[in-house]
Amino acid sequence: MTTPALSVDAVFRLARDLDCVGIEFRNDLERPLFDGKSPAAIKDLAAEHNVRILALAEVKAFNDAPETKTAKARALMQTAQACGAEGVALIPRMGDAPLDRAAQRDSLRHALAIYQPMLTDMNLIGFIEPLGFAASTLRHKDDAADVLADMGNPDCFKLVHDTFHHHLSGDTTFYPDLTGIVHISGISDPAPNVADMTDAHRILVDQDDRLGNIAQLQTLRAQGYAGPASFECFAPEIHAITDPSAALAGSITFITAQLTAKAA
After folding, report:
1. In terms of C-beta distances under 8 Å and separation of at least 24 residues, what long-range contacts does 168-172 make, across chains too?
2. Which of 83, 112, 141, 229 has a C-alpha 20 to 30 A away from that of 129?
3. Is the omega angle on the peptide bond into residue 48 within 30 degrees of 0, that is, cis?
4. 125-128 β-sheet, strand order
């Protein structure tokens, strides 16, 4: 999502050059998944550049009538399996108004019961990403964690800790043991209040970040999380960068320096 203008080959080269551990691919860009390359070709490129394919996104509105989405979900999972991806992203439906949290848990429980056998059979992880917007049908990580606990914490499900959505939701609890991946993005624009923050505000993390990315990453690390953190920037000005290597390198350097200083 951070580099939607780059070809698949260029994204692999960028990940290698920046010493990233992996890449997330998306099926909701204005282009075919993998630029039309076969999953087998993507698997070969990942091996060639020594990077992981962390996830394929997304099973959209996965918690809304999931029994009608099994074919699409299975197809994405099969693609993930064929390209060597570690899992698929499960993104909840955005509603028109806030939904009772008990209803959110019920719909999540129903959906996960349907997806669990497919993920288990294909040895994949379903990355559950609560969205912090007020009208999200799965807003809080606490609710997802409670449902997973009721299910016995199946190995095939992990949470996505998204620093933007964590900030929007007002969540205060971190779940390092349940977290499979962290999404990072910053907001430096001083104008929007929390209720008015949107994906279009999400840029690379810098010294003016309002989301507390450094504090969130520091807390996750202190509590034992050692997995990947993936840039997820939706802002048009980030998408317009022709050569994002320098900008990404700068943000990585800033984040690393801040975490190192805080740990000292």
Report:
1. 168/132, 168/133, 168/194, 168/197, 169/130, 169/132, 169/139, 169/140, 169/141, 170/132, 171/132, 171/140, 171/141, 171/142
2. 83
3. no
4. 22-26, 52-60, 87-91, 125-128, 157-162, 179-184, 229-231
Position 242 scores a pLDDT of 84
pLDDT class of 17 with cuts at 50, 70, 90: very high
Query: What are the CA-CA distances from residue 222 to residues 173, 225, 247 (Å)?
Result: 13, 7, 27
**Neighbour tally for 126: CB within 10 Å:** 25
Work out the burial of residue 228: count CB atoms within 10 Å of its CB; fewer than 13 is exposed, 13-18 middle, 19 or more buried.
middle
CA distance 207 to 45: 34
CATH of the domain at 215: 3.20.20.150
pLDDT at 88: 98
Q: Is residue 56 pLDDT above 90, yes or no? A: yes
Asked whether residue 221 is domain-assigned, the answer is yes
Check if the beta carbon of residue 212 is closer than 8 Å to that of residue 197: no
Residue appearing with tokens 């900008």: 247
| Domain assignment of residue 191, yes or no | yes
Rounded to an integer, what distance in angstroms lies between the CA atom of residue 89 and that of residue 128? 6
Confidence at 262, pLDDT banded by 50, 70, 90 = confident
pLDDT-based confidence at residue 249 (cuts at 50, 70, 90):
very high
Report the number of distinct structural domains present in the chain: 1
The answer to the question of residue 184 being in a domain is yes
